[in-house]
Prior knowledge:
Blueprint: E1 2-4, H1 17-27, E2 35-37, H2 53-68, E3 79-86, E4 89-95, E5 101-103, E6 111-114, E7 121-122, E8 124-128, E9 131-135, E10 144-147, E11 157-159, E12 168-169
Parallel strand pairs: 1-2
Antiparallel strand pairs: 3-4, 4-9, 5-11, 6-7, 6-10, 8-9, 10-12
Amino acid sequence: FYYVQIAPFNSWYKPFECAELCEAQLMALSVPNTGMAVTSDIGNLSDVHPKNKQDVGKRLALWALAKTYGHDIVYSGPLYKSMRVEDDKIRIFFNYSDGGLMIKGTRLTCFTIAGSDRKFVEAQAVIDGNTVVVSSDKVKQPVAVRFAWSNTDEPNLFNKAGLPASLFRTDDWPGVTVDKRDPSF
């Protein structure tokens, strides 16, 4: 079952609801025989349905060619795998980055970082091989990173195959779509 992750959209969503929906779609990849085409770079902020159907179809076709028909091709953009705190920085590791990572533009965008106070601030991010190192002068002891964690973020991190990275967060702090009355939170 191959599906399309919702593109960034600026409309009826409350802040971060679109990001949490995209995260739920990302989590669905844990179901066997699924694949997800990321569309964060080809959407239209004023229309939930991107007009660029050709690239959406090509990205879905890559999943089918690789996973259904056994072709040895790159079929996914970078997906968050793990993180490691390194002094005042956090290093992010990805699946689907073996060919390397790249920026479309002059600098990486849409990264935020937080300390134990859970207050995210804009961060600097740089590619280092197949990883991204994230930091901010405002956070001396970082504990979490979020990438493209806004309803309207249009990030610019890709793998060398030209496929965009999915949004992610390294924390599991309750979000806006969680029932805060639930005692497990």
